[in-house]
Design brief:
single chain; 182 residues; mainly alpha; three-stranded mixed β-sheet; 8 helices; 60% helix
């Protein structure tokens, strides 16, 4: 089975990742709230037994949550959900952090060549680009509907000036020339 990652990549299913995730959540609970190794193995076999050609990461995680609740392990299911959320936040932070670090190292070729009017090796330009990365991160996580973010990331649309979206005025706000032409 293929697993469709959040970025759209397809990778081979690895039951060990499920074992690790549930085991981490299992460490957060005690006694009767824990799930046995056999139950963890049952969950992995259940997912494999669905015989789907592919599943998204979210579908797999939702299945795990349902199975934990079916076992009556509600506290563990809650810990697993929190584990998921924590890792989601880490992924979001890491992607922005890495984007900013590549700017500082002059290693972000895409951003450095995106606007020929900006010399990305200048400190003043890097400050603007770093602020833009923070703006894009906020736009993606907080301000824009998920479908718009996905469409932009998939290349269906291009959200121009997303790096200025948190501000009330955007870099490329154009003046209505017809109004001024006589």
């Amino acid at each position: 089975m293929k697993v469709i990652k959040r970025d759209g990549r397809k990778v081979e299913y690895d039951s060990n990742k499920i074992v690790i995730a549930i085991s981490q959540a299992n460490k957060e609970v005690g006694g009767k709230d824990k799930v046995s190794r056999a139950s963890i193995e049952f969950i992995t076999k259940y997912i494999e037994g669905l015989e789907k050609p592919s599943m998204t990461v979210e579908e797999i995680q939702d299945t795990i949550e349902r199975k934990l609740m079916e076992f009556g392990k509600f506290t563990l299911a809650k810990k697993y959900i929190l584990y998921r959320e924590k890792h989601s936040l880490i992924r979001q932070a890491n992607s922005t952090d890495e984007n900013i670090l590549t700017l500082v190292r002059n290693a972000n070729k895409e951003t450095m060549e995106e606007n020929s009017n900006k010399n990305a090796s200048l400190v003043s330009t890097q400050r603007d680009l770093i602020a833009g990365e923070c703006s894009k991160d906020l736009a993606d996580r907080v301000m824009l509907p998920e479908r718009i973010v996905k469409a932009h990331n998939d290349g269906v649309i291009h959200f121009h000036d997303k790096d200025y979206f948190v501000q009330p005025m955007h870099n490329c706000c154009l003046v209505n020339i017809r109004r001024y032409v006589r």
